[in-house]
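Sequence of Short-chain dehydrogenase (Agrobacterium bohemicum).
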Amino acid sequence: MTNRNKGVALVTGASSGIGLVTAQALVKAGYQVFGTSRKPSANPHGITMLVCDLTEEVSVKGMIEEIVKQAGRIDLVVNNAGIGLLGGAEESSIAQAQSIFDVNVFGVVRVINAVLPIMRGQKSGRIINISSVLGLIPSPYNAFYSSTKHAIEGYSESLDHEVRGFGIRIVLVQPGVTRTAFEENLTHVDQPLPVYTAERTHSESLMRTWIEKGDDPQIVADTVVKAATAKTPKLRYSAGKQSSQVRMLRRFMPEKLVDRILRKANGLLD
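Predicted 3D structure, token representation.
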């Protein structure tokens, strides 16, 4: 591939937010880019949008087949699509917990399972999974969302060892809090309990404040391009100052100190 034609890329959840900015950055970097959305959407400049329901294996396989039909190959996959869930862990039914895992974890697995045979045939490929700082640290009132990101971390690191011999690399990009549409992909608990109402409401207000002050999505997009084009990629890339700080916090600070810092940051009293 030349610098002007780096290959064919797929970005899931590319209709808005981090996904859209990332898809646009990859176009600028020289990729032919396909994006997915749950509903039909207009094609942003240089991006071919496809409808795909990541919770349906048939939909995912059909989307991958359509890309290969149009472009002949797939060189890069960016698994970005996901949903949030705010509330106390006890306030979600098992069905609701399963639904967020179905998108954030098994949606990623469906895409990867569909694309791996193609990449093995090419003897090359790179898959970037968008994780989060919440894949490194706990997050009160985001227990299930944080759990999905912790799952993606373990899955990705394990899978990278399994497929590296085929010329395929798995990479994690870890954004911090990013300025995106807060309500767009946020789910509220389906069995709220009065005992958690005050803290849940505070947590939602705190999240809004953090997002307003968060990183520009372009920071994540630039990190994805860096990870996609690195000759020898690292397993993990921190996207932004906050992400780097959290990673250092978790890695080097004593557990009790990390616990104290997290409780203070979340306004929780002992």
